[in-house]
Design brief:
mainly alpha; 0% strand; 70% helix
Amino acid sequence: MIYWIKRGGRLFGSTVFFLVLFSILIRHDGIHINSFLTAFIYAFTAGIICWLIGTILSDIVLKGIVTDIGGNDSDNLLDGGILQRLLMIREQITPGGEEMPFVEIKKTEGATKKQQKKKL
């Protein structure tokens, strides 16, 4: 998931960088060194800011998609079992996960009879 979060931030930041760079260069009629440096500084600053915003937004969206999966309905059988795998990963991440039983272990009757004999 971290890979896709970083990738979303890079995609958004680089898109804004090139859009700002080309828009400033097109606005000026020629490519001069001064206008290119100014355009590059503005584009770099906008790219860094939008990279940060893109990383935050992709983090929120991806974590929202993964954690907001509904119950075990028949709809989860779609998409080649991706949702089942995400549910299994979510169970493994939770503290206790699959290993923590929710059923109480009942005492065997043999142990209670031995305790009763010792008391007599």
